[in-house]
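Model it.
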Amino acid sequence: MKKYLPVIKKCPLFDGVSNENLARMLGCLKAKVVDFDKKYTVFREGTVQKHVGILLSGSLHLVRMDYYGNRSILSGVEIGETFLEEFACSEAELPVSVIADEPSQVLILDLRHILHTCSNCCSFHQQIIFNLMKILATKNTAFYQKIDVTSKRSTREKLLTYLNYQAKKTNNNEFNIPFDRQELADYLEVERSGLSMEISKLKNEGIIDSYKNYFKLL
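Modeled.
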């Protein structure tokens, strides 16, 4: 667990928790590190989860499959980021699956140990709960951004809306996105061929520049 502490310290869930309390806190929360192979389904749609995950290494995607097998990526998970906290809080069936895009390591926390103060009355519990509420609010904002992107009528509008959000997020007109071309198409809910064609058009028109997952708004 010690080698993951630099990543864990950066997780927003642990803001305000001192270094000396961090290791003790992880023991109190019954934290465990789990390895997942590429393409492994970490958590499956339709199951009820009471756990919160933190990505320590690798890459994860929250994916929804429709009846016909069409895939839509709701979001990616960045290293040091929590995931599934909104669903764990509701104790409802997962509407998405969490899939490892590459070999990944995840810190698993039981939500019940976060929300309920232990017998030791650890002082950091209230801080963790406060941090969790902030994370949920941030995820709610990201959810509405996703709706804003996919509600656009054309592939061009969807792509430019998404790229503008990324530029605002990074405060830079140059940035890398967490998706390859197929994953970006799945996130925007468009065909990959149409997306590639639109990217080429926008480059020819001098509106954007791009290479693989790098984009620049001109």
